[in-house]
UniProtKB/TrEMBL annotation:
Gene3D superfamilies: Bifunctional nuclease domain. Residues 1-132 form the BFN domain. GO terms for molecular function: nuclease activity. This is BFN domain-containing protein. It holds the Pfam family BFN_dom. It comes from Rippkaea orientalis (strain PCC 8801 / RF-1) (Cyanothece sp. (strain PCC 8801)). The lineage of its organism: Bacteria, Bacillati, Cyanobacteriota, Cyanophyceae, Oscillatoriophycideae.
Length: 170
């Protein structure tokens, strides 16, 4: 799993649909998730620390957690099926832990309000993320190519500890 942060809300240029954009810690990969208008407003409200005069749905959920002594340990966006993302809230109350199915947009909104981490499974990132820093990705690929081109069989033997074991047996 990779921890992600909310980079912000964007609008799809063609459909004008809101997208929540998650970025990894190195800001090299971004995960766009299409969401509804209401969810976008809720996420923006959390990002801007807006306090409504009366609790909205996500605020109510956080208030319930607090009243019942429930901690949101993290959210996990765990799969992508038929262009739909799936997430869970990982909750803890004392020694009891539960995972509750949740839309990613709602999970993100609640996580922002509680300061809880947002995790995404590697498979989801591999399937749906977009590169943010193509130059850094290319530099990394080039460095790996050079490493492989200059690699000799003896380097693998020395690094693997095989040479030392073989010498000890002789």
């Amino acid at each position: 799993m990779i921890e992600m942060n909310v980079a912000g809300i964007a609008l799809d240029a063609v459909t004008r649909s809101p997208i929540v954009l998650l970025k990894d810690g190195s800001e090299r990969r971004a995960l766009p998730i299409y969401i509804g208008q209401d969810q976008a407003k809720a996420i923006i409200g959390a990002l801007e620390n807006q306090k409504p005069p009366r609790p909205l749905t996500h605020d109510l959920i956080v208030n319930l957690f607090e009243a019942w002594g429930v901690d949101l340990e993290r959210i996990i966006i765990h799969s992508l099926q038929d262009n739909t993302f799936y997430a869970v809230l990982c909750l803890r109350q004392g020694e009891i832990k539960k995972e509750i199915d949740c839309r990613p947009s709602d999970a993100i909104s609640i996580a922002l309000r509680t300061g809880s981490p947002i995790w995404v499974m590697e498979e989801v990132i591999a399937d749906a993320s977009i590169p943010v820093d193509r130059d850094a990705d290319e530099e990394e690929r080039q460095a790996f190519r050079e490493f492989v081109e200059n690699l000799r069989p003896e380097d693998l033997i020395q690094r693997g500890g095989f040479q030392q074991e073989n010498n000890e047996q002789q």
